[in-house]
Amino acid sequence: MVIGAGPAGLTAAYQLAKAGDPVLVAEADDVVGGISRTVERDGWRFDIGGHRFFTKVAPVEDLWNEILPAEDFLLRPRKSRIFYKGKYYDYPLRAFNALINLGPKEAFLCGCSYLRARIAPPKDQTNYEGWLVARFGWRLYRTFFKTYTEKVWGVPVSEMPADFAAQRVKNLDLGKAILNALTPKRNQTEITTLIEEFRYPKFGPGMMWEVCREKVEKLGGRVLMETRVDTIHIEGGRATGVTLSGGGASRFEPASHVISSMPMAELVAALDPPPPPEVRSAGADLHYRDFLTVALVVPVEAGFPDNWIYVHAPDVEVGRIQNFGQWSPYMVREGTTCLGLEYFVFEGDRLWESDDDTLIAMATRELDALGLVTPDKVERGYVVRVKKAYPYYDFKYRENVATVVAWLASNAPNVHLVGRNGMHKYNNQDHSMFTAMLTVENIHGANNDIWAVNVEEEYHEEGPATDARPGAGTGRDAPMLPWREGSDSPR
Ligand SMILES: Cc1cc2nc3c(=O)[nH]c(=O)nc-3n(C[C@H](O)[C@H](O)[C@H](O)COP(=O)(O)OP(=O)(O)OC[C@H]3O[C@@H](n4cnc5c(N)ncnc54)[C@H](O)[C@@H]3O)c2cc1C
Known about the structure:
The chain is built from 16 helices and 20 strands. By secondary structure, the chain is an alpha/beta fold. The strands form 5 sheets. The protein has a 7-stranded mixed beta sheet, with helices on both faces. It is globular and about 70 Å long. Residues 189-194 and 458-476 have low confidence and may be disordered. Flavin-adenine dinucleotide (FAD) binds at residues 3-9, 26-29, 34-36, 49-52, 228-229, 261-262, 266, 291, 389-390, 419-422, 427-430, 432.
């Protein structure tokens, strides 16, 4: 039994079906792909966030190639820049490009601010703000780090601890960045290649998962859509099955193993009988950052050459803008492109609760305010809301996850947690899939530690030879964050 038809669930199902095991997938939604789905409205296709297919895990790469024929799996050029005060800055940030764009006066002031910070660095560098200011100075910090990071995570940078940055963004400072720009590096070509290209299914990421679903079904597996797992039944130290609901009915489905990619918090709440109070509270104390995209259809010439741009301006709420036509020309209708304005939110907050028309009007206004597209060019708009886009790493999440995992190991060892929200771990598609592949091997007798699948390894543009860049800038890094006890938001 597999819960969820996202990358992790369908990977598990495919591997099981290939091995000849009977497999049933229950998917609550009416499309496959989970967060990696393609959303289609009136012939335009949107990706929730822009999913680059990039991995250092060879078995995952092989599986992608096995699922999708080469002609449907495009190799795309990558371009993404920071858009700030009408100018485009290289991303990852390059010192000289940044200084030239800032202009001589601002560059001079940034230089002075950097020197001041070197002479008298902030006393408290245990928070991310102090850590960044010590390395860049206040002025560059405010321009390139503060606003975007706060848009993504919804908390002040001064409340984020610095240790995540210190781990992930080793040796980052302006002085070294300038030196890097001047000295050619040994493995620069390889890293540049990784930064500049990625694979992408012709019709968006969901295409990979639609084809995967067909393969599972061809091999005899069943994928039930609009079917939710409401309850996981536990008896005699094992899960015995699940209660499924869909089409107005519910029924018990027996299972020898339950592979779960549903959010860990919801899994704990669905256990029957309920686990002890400390396990229930650990599950209930796991939090998420949510996400919404306002996709605006504009003439193709109104778009930009980037796949996406980062928006650092503090006077607009949009954090990133995708240009879906640049991801794949098959995503859009001829003569148009679609700009996806991304807002990082908490479920239930002001933006989340705004109706679609209000959000479309706001996004149109913001594109205009940024000087990118005037309102008369916006033909129409669509809103896509995504719950639980990011598992939230608050100070207690590690302990909470450990409590749940330990309880399951001793009371229901045939419940296997996989994927991103399934493990409450910052897994991208490849790692979500890899945890599912290793889990299937475990079911067949192996002893893999899926928690060792490493999201912290050098990844995408995070290699050491790149220049200075905002540590939290990809929107995919995961700092540890504060969370107000007993509340539904951090503030
Ligand atoms: C903004 C953004 C950008 C990203 N960019 C990239 C990128 O460039 N490259 C990349 O590789 N990854 C990227 N990712 C990460 C990628 O989206 C995830 O790693 C991946 O989708 C996780 O797969 P999953 O199967 O674990 O979970 P999900 O995709 O969340 O799928 C879980 C599925 O389970 C279903 N479900 C939940 N509860 C139940 C239930 N009770 N019963 C039945 N079904 C249920 C859900 O409906 C969903 O379909 C990005 C993510 C975000 C948010």
